[in-house]
Amino acid sequence: MSVDATVLPSELLVAPQPLIGLCGLDTKHNLVHKAIWDAFSANRKTDRASVQFKLLPLGYEFPVAKPKRASYEWYQPKGILKRNWMLKHLHVLPAVVVLFQDMERNDPQWSEKQVQCASAMQSLKSALQERNTRLCLVLLQKSSPLPPGEDLLASERAASLTTACGINNKMLFILPHSEHLMGYTLRLESAFLDMAQSYYALMSKRVRAHRDQLTVAHTSLKIRHQFKLGFIAEIRQDFSTGLKHYTQAYGTLEEIRITDTNCLEIKTIAGFLNYKLCRLMFKLKQPRDAINYFTTHIEKYKNRIGFKDLIFEHYAWLSTQHSMFADLFCEAIKNGLPALQTQNPGIYYNKAAEFTMKRKEAFLQSSAMLLSPTDPTTPTGMPNNNTMTLYTEYFGIRAVKTGDPISEQQTNTLIRENEKLFNHSNAIINLLSLARAQFKIYKCPRFRNKLAIDMAEEYFKHGDHANALTLYSVMLTDYRREHWSAIFSDVLLKTLRCAFLMASITDFISCSIEALSLRVNCEQKERIIVLENLWKVFKGAAPISQGQSAPEIIERWENAFPAIKSPIPIDMDKLTKLIEMYISFEHLELKNDDTINVQLVIKLLTDVPIKIHHCAIILTDGARFFKIPASRCKSFRSLLEVFESRKNKQQQEIQSQHFDPNLKLEPDLYYELHFYTEAYQFLENTQLRVTRIEAQMGSEKLAIQLTKSAFFTRNPFRHYTRRRDLDDNIEINPLCYITPTFHLSTQCNLGKETQMLVNEYYPIATTINNPYNVFLQNVSLNISVPSSLRNQVFLTTDLSPGRQKLHSQIQIDTGELSMQSSNSALYYVFSLVETPIALLQKTSYVIDIQRPKTASTMTQLESGSANSAESSPENIRNFIPPTDIRPLTVSPPVQIEFLDESRLRKTREDTINIECALDFRFSARFYTLSKRPLTKVYRGENFLLRANIEVRSPVDIDILETYFICDHNLVQSTYSFKRKKFTQTYRSRDKLEDVITLRTNAASNDWITSKDFERTKSGDGIQSELFSRSRHARKLNAIKNMARDGVVGDAIDVAASAHMNKHLMGKIPNNMTIINNNAGSANSLLLAANSHSSMTASSSSFDEKFNSTQAGTVTDGDNVDTSLANTASVRALNPRVVFNKAIEAIQATGHCRGFFKRIVTTEPETQAITAHQQQQPNFGVYCIRWRRSGHKEENESKFLIHGLDIEEPPLNIYCTIEEKMFVKMPMTYKVVLRNPTSNVLHLVATLSISIADNFICSGHKQLDISIYAYSEKELVYNLYPLCVGWVNLPELTLEYNTKADPSKNDSHNTVLSELVQRSIPKKVFVLPPLKQQLK
Amino acid sequence: MAVCISIIGKDNAPLYLTTTDLDKELELQYRVHAALDVVEEKCQPVSKGTPDSKELYLGLLYSTETHKIYGFVTNTKIKFVIVVDSGNIALRENEVRAMFRNLHMLYTDAVCNPFYAPGEPLTSVKFDRAVQKIMGGNA
Fold this sequence. Notes:
heterodimer; A: alpha+beta; nine-stranded mixed beta sheet; B: Beta-Lactamase; 3 helices; 5 strands
């Protein structure tokens, strides 16, 4: 039993439970008994009732009941709580005693056993005299009992047994142990518990009875009784009653006046009660009350010190109170109580630790006070067991004769002696670590750190320097990050001290170095001492610390020196800044044969000089690391001087000294170090970066390797600080790019005077020049069309007559290029659109690798040894360059590709910009014969196509020929008999006009496509021409037509075209050929030649579809003369054939006819058909052959003519007049009416000459005509012009003969008259009489 | 009135710290430093939906046997921590609030100085004098 009065006894800490004694069980020898005992005692989970079972051995001695006091009147108890009371009721005195007996109900020796049992029972009864302990008997039987009443023998025997034992028959239980043991056990347990409950209820009643006898004076007894009641209530699991009683006891305790003598007892009891109260409050989910109660409790007793000499005891008590409360708090949290950052157990642990510290302090103080005058040997002479003399049977009372000073003195000495045994430091550290654990949960890192510092300090005080050092050095990093310099300095110096005491060289050195920094709060004197000590260590001597060079420390240091491996690596990045520096390459970009110059400017951030040697930088090209030692060095007074010197470089070269291997850095000076190495040692096209700076410090015996990453960031707001002079106005090149040498230069002949035109094969001659003294292999030029211009711009190298293979990418291999030689390549660009063209030119060659050789000035670090430090995460992080110094854009980009060990390919990309100018602006319109705009075409009717061409070319061009290739369904005839002449040279803005008469043979619906054509052809093998004639014979009548005008669908939305182009890009088959483009109207015609066709040219090359799209007409020729198409020999990715001459393209199809159909090219056939039904057909292609004046190359511009809807007319009217009319010369005016329908037409034709007296007319004035189906009728009039000039012709009107054909009405007549208006000329020009006529 | 007044920057590094008792300064620094835990916890948004409260005064951060520590956070996350002696029962919370308000004003005046670089420790003598006045309780 501890004498330490402040410690709470264990019986107080456990949760009180009813005690039930089991006797008669022989667990050691009897397996059955053991199983039963286990069933009761083992695996008590929370779901089982809280009971404590105790195995009572035979002859167990129960505590003897004290004789009852009749009256309390004169009774003065010596203390409040007896030490043994709680223990007795918890562990010694059971509420229920259960006697187990093996007795089968049909046991033959029943009576004997009954006697045995009765005697055992009797002995128990006698042992428990005066107690209310319940006794009960459990019979252990093999088989389960029969239902009551059935087994007469058993019930009879049971009755006899109960009488023999003198117990109530309710106290007799039978436990069958063969099966369901656990279930029976549980039932028994609850029965026992009931008994226990009644026992404790009775007990509390008795205590209460005592209490009633008490008078006012019996304060301590009152407290005792209340405590007992509370405790019993707690045993009965009646927590709220327990709380009530404890609260009363606590309240009563406050009534006692506290003196020095009873102070300890009162505090002890108050502590007990408070503990119980808080415990119950937490249990009853009143954490707030518990905390408040505890706080007031502490407030109340905080200043009740008691004996001044034993003040440490008071602190011990306070500490225990806190730590116990913290334990309770923790337990409550474990049971689901949520805690807060500001209110968590850690706080209480922390306070407990603080009080323990105070306890320690107070103890040390008091013993120092006491021991100094007296003989120090006396306390040690005290035998230890003397402490037992202080023991009393009451809590918090010592066996001291009050009022006897000597005895008191002795007691105090004893207690102090005892206190000496207590390991304060351990207790403190233990509490602190508990608190740390709690603070970790409640997110208080800084509190935790503070506690760690406290712990370290305690370790330190305790003399455990190793642990202190570990803790301190761990905390160093945390506090370093926080930038609280005062705190950090404190921790650092303490760490330094620990390292010194522990002779931990590495820690000592790193702490010393850090302590040199100006950021650590130190005097310069101290820094000098630190530096001196540091050098002592470097020299292999133990440092001296404030005269505290105890011999054992020196010895320790001496032992430590041989174990250390020099140099010791120290990462300066992890330490507080000691050096301010920046590093910069002299040039951002370097050629391969230049010298790399790296400049490092250093300034110390300390006020003591530091000597370094072996200063080097680590360069990296991304994969490998190179170490370069410093070669030059120079010092400056200010940064300004550094800049100045940089400006006049030559001077600097002279001034700067060679790098002194032992450089002494003075605190006020700036040092500029130079590092040189040759650039050819690195691969081309790499970016060099400085990763680290290394320097050594120390002597030969012991040195340290300082490393610092070259990571540089400018301070924010640096422009506002005038004191920080290092980083303003500094131009820093964090990277150095070694530009690759490209050994080729290319030049294009793109002169201003030869501007490229649309639809022209524009030659580009590129000269490839090798000005270097190297031999280049596989020189090649790769030119590609940007994807945005694919299918509009093409490339070719071959201009053989007739066709060119077109590509969007070409490659020209020129093979090898020897030293100082050049070569040239020629290719052609062809564009369908007027646009600036940016061709991508890739020049590449293969060259032997010039292996980077490592020169003597630098050493390549092994990747493995590229320093162990390198692999540490901090370093790797440092290698990631900050975003603001990301690779610079270098132009022109050169790609380097390693082919194998010895060769590499260099590729450079350039763009060639070509402006493409328009050749012609083309527009075409349809007109009727009477020169009105044509809106719809009637089948069999003649109409005009008027093509207007405006030359837009900036250079003069010759137009060689223009012609129109019309669709198969159209018949073309020249409008006038004037021969077109195109010999002239045209300039920009010159205009041309061409008129062509066209007639359709088929209406839109009957439009023959190439497909129809092919189908029929292959179907019945009729000759194509014959076929088309025969098939359409009924429709094809040559009917002369008075024309009306129409507009050719020429203007097509450019935007739509662009869209379509894009859309088509992915769909156009590779082997598409493009014929044409109309830049002006964006009608383009593309002829696709299928070069991979397997069919033979002669037999199957019939078909050529002119599939047009909105944007461009793509002709998906299924088969073109294969042999021709394949003649193109240029190596290309997408072979294309362009038919330079449209007429040749038509001819190449074999059947020599153009089928122009507006079909969305690449759509499936079904869609194409629907498109055909909805859309207008194409009438043909208009071609212009031209060339630049003075050039030979002919070009051809092609424009697609979109057609109009062709309708079936009710009647075809052809009017024929003689070409020239002369006055007074009779002429024939013939009108042919053709019935294109299958019905008979009945018409009335009237010729009215009443208005115009310009003619004398003969013929039927009015005539009824009937025209049979598909036949025609001629109306012939003879006219005799009377006057010269423009004269109106007699007006012919046609009407349906409603009599003959009643189905026709006026509306039909209107249509008819429109038709007449459209077809028949109104006026003619009558010429004056010919000369011979006049004669 | 106050034992220690400190101004702590955005990155939790101290910008200014003054104490009445130089001997205890280190201990107080530790306390103020640890108080940042509570400040950080209190400054955390309760839930995403709720906007940051306009209240800058954080109230009592924690108390020890000897000291009470109060906190205040400006909108720019500058923390003010005032340490008050626990024995000073007469000091009401309103007065602490007023101290913070005055301190905030002083701080804004100090940082408005064009010669002051944000993030640097406050070394202005005038500011120091004014803060000492607040500490004395007669601001």
